Amino acid sequence: MEKYRVGVIGGTGMVGQRFVSLMENHPWFQLTVIAASSRSAGKRYEDAVGHRWAMATPLPQEAKDIIVMDAEADAEKIAGMVDFVFCAVDMKKEEIRALEEKYAKLECPVVSNNSAHRWTEDVPMVIPEINSDHIKIIDAQRKRLGTKRGFIAVKSNCSLQSYVPALHPLKKYGLEKALVCTYQAISGAGKTFETWPEMVDNVIPYIGGEEEKSEQEPLKIWGTLEDGKFVNAKGPSITAQCIRVAASDGHMAACFMKFADGKAPSMDQIKADWAAFSGKPQELNLPSAPKQFLHYFEEDNRPQTKLDRMLENGMVVSIGRLRPDTQYDYKFVCLSHNTLRGAAGGAVLLAELLCAEGYITKA
Ligand SMILES: NC(=O)c1ccc[n+]([C@@H]2O[C@H](COP(=O)([O-])OP(=O)(O)OC[C@H]3O[C@@H](n4cnc5c(N)ncnc54)[C@H](OP(=O)(O)O)[C@@H]3O)[C@@H](O)[C@H]2O)c1
User: Fold this and answer.
1) Probe residue for ligand 1, chosen from 8, 9, 12, 15 as the CB with the greatest number of ligand atoms within 8 Å
2) What are the chain's domains?
3) Quick one: average pLDDT of 22-37?
4) What's the pLDDT band for 209 if we cut at 50, 70, 90?
């Protein structure tokens, strides 16, 4: 099969490096362009990243000699060289909005990690196992943009990638509310212990904007598509506290859930629902789809961030410690890899879905 030509915008950053790694040996995607700021433009990728390379695997051979392009100044040229781009940049929100729209209008689909377009009315925010049907709104978005190929699709915030999938199969029992505390790794801030030494032996009880995203984004994901717009779900309502902890990768969440009176399922039923849950990526057998999306550990001391974040290439949600609670019905813990399932891996899976469903085509 002829591969799709892929660009990574923000390829020198933490999430961008993940994209570059995930493109190595990808069966459908060929890394073709890497772009970043004017600071990196014109340099070999290996030189532009330099000591910032933060992946556990070596920098892919195929990426080393790619000359980094300027995401803004070279946009037209880049759009002509690729079939679509991934985007993960650290810029002001309005600048990201403009940049992503520029690529879409240049007829280059954008699969984005950034939050800038998550609340744009006709931009789908997708966890492929949960709301794959939301991509249908791309037809309406293309009408607004006046494009044939170009569009923007986004993935949701990394903080909620563990508990939203865990809660999703339980909504049918009248799930009313959930309380979550997240314990988030430093790579979520684009950092390592070398670049953020203050985080060694530390916990910081604040991550700007994260609690709002953790509470509100699930309602768009669980929302419905009506007349070319999303109508947010009214519940389950979520309250969240997000805390930065001294882990390199992997966001853990402690979650409490309450069902409508008398409707709470048994613990065995919940575990059975988690074990049985799968979605469109598994149905379509997409290359990055985990076989067992929700993995339950019976051991009391699992999942652990360091031990379990890489389960099925970091694309799984690991769950454990389901037990009754005195104020809510049940509590449990869950874990997902923030730069894989929660960022680049989730976006690659979304791009695979968009290709399989015909929204991304070869230009
Ligand atoms: N880290 C995570 O777990 C995570 C999870 C979900 C979503 N996200 C989101 O993903 C995005 C990137 O996060 P990150 O952690 O990868 O950040 P990062 O490590 O700070 O990387 C930022 C990237 O943006 C590029 N950039 C900065 N200014 C630019 C400009 N004016 N034009 C073009 N490129 C520019 C940088 O290029 P230079 O190297 O040339 O400066 C670099 O490639 C953010 O929006 C973040 O909220 C991150």
Assistant:
1) 15
2) 4-157+344-356 (3.40.50.720), 160-336 (3.30.360.10)
3) 97
4) very high
Contact between residue 167 and residue 236 where contact means Cβ atoms under 8 Å apart: yes
CA of 93 from ligand 1 middle (Å) equals: 12
Q: Atom 1 (ligand 1): residue with closest C-alpha?
A: 188
| Ligand 1 atom at minimum distance from 89 CA | 24
Grade residue 229 by pLDDT with cuts at 50, 70 and 90: confident
- When the pLDDT of each residue in the chain is averaged and rounded to a whole number, the result is 97
How sure is the predictor about 227, in pLDDT bands with cuts at 50, 70 and 90? Answer: confident
- 363, pLDDT greater than 90: no
Asked whether the predicted pLDDT for residue 3 surpasses 90, the reply is: yes
What pLDDT was estimated at residue 228? 79
| Res 357: pLDDT | 98
Minimal CA–CA distance to 121: which of 137, 103, 97? 137
HSE, CB side, 13 Å, CA atoms: give it for residue 279: 23
Residue closest via CA to ligand 1's atom 40 equals: 37
8 lines ligand 1 (CB under 6 A): no
